[in-house]
Amino acid sequence: MTTLSIPQDLAVIPCSQCSAIAFLRVPSNNSIFQQFPDTATGPGAPHYEFLWRDAWASSLPVTPPATGFFTSVVQVVVAPASRGSITLASADPFTFPIIDPAFLTSEFDVLVARFAFKSVRQFMNATSWQGFNLGLAPDSIAETDEEIDAFLRNNTAPIWHPVGTNRIQSKDGKEVGVVDSKLLVNGVTGLRIVDASVFPFIIGGHPQATVYALAERAADLIKEQFAREVPGQCWTETPRYTGISREKSDSASKTRIHLSYFGQI
User: Which part of the chain is the Glucose-methanol-choline oxidoreductase C-terminal domain (predicted)?
Assistant: First the structure.
């Protein structure tokens, strides 16, 4: 993390929530892949993501310094191997379930997060940042792998993209799911689930467009069923989307780690 020294005439500028976003891969020759299989969704899909914010940003209960100007880097593991779980706490449907996100329980995720941490630090120490960066935020000073891992575990939070709690069954039927290919809940009549919980794994990016595609497909399925049950109805066709299938799933959620660079005029 680094201190920002900003010229007075640039101290007030417009900005969006994130000024830049980058999706990146761990190099294929990295020793990580000698120990673990690649969890990315494809040969060009990312392992981690950086989001830059022109402000102090953290979803953790951390009080920012009273003075200074900041840029924050949110680091996200977008192809996690860790899998969490949701367990019923009782037979009462109104009792909150037991949710265990199981962040960083896979050593693969720890190694990817550590690699990303070192990468963003190297980037922020580049010559082009000289004159802006003055130092790391105090809670981000970690040098050894052990210190970095401890920082990651103490600064990890969800990024609101959980999936897999109601996963769709695999196309070949070998992997049992909560819903079938028509998004109907197995063993229940007339109940569909149309949200990201049916995804069997986390996509290598933000899920919004994929959720839209799922909703479009669900609309087609519902219209087709209604047309069969109520003959004579006319429906306008909407675009078709190919189903998603992959072998492993379980509940999963991306994790993010906040790294805050700070500065003063």
Answer: 80-215
116-146 burial: b if 16+ Cβ within 10 Å, else e:
bbebbbeebeeeeeeebbeebbebbebeeee
SS3 118: helix
- Please confirm, yes or no, whether 161 is among the known catalytic residues: yes
- Residues 6+ away with beta carbon under 8 Å from 186: 169, 176, 177, 178, 179, 180
Domains of the chain and any CATH numbers: 8-162+253-263 (3.30.560.10), 165-249 (3.50.50.60)
Average pLDDT for residues 242-257, to the nearest whole number?
46
The larger pLDDT score, comparing residue 263 to residue 212, is at: 212
Cα 244 to chain centroid distance, Å, stands at 18
pLDDT of residue 106: 97
What does the alpha-carbon distance between residue 255 and residue 247 come to, in Å, rounded to a whole number? 22
Q: Whole-model pTM?
A: 0.76
Do the Cβ atoms of 260 and 57 come closer than 8 Å?
yes
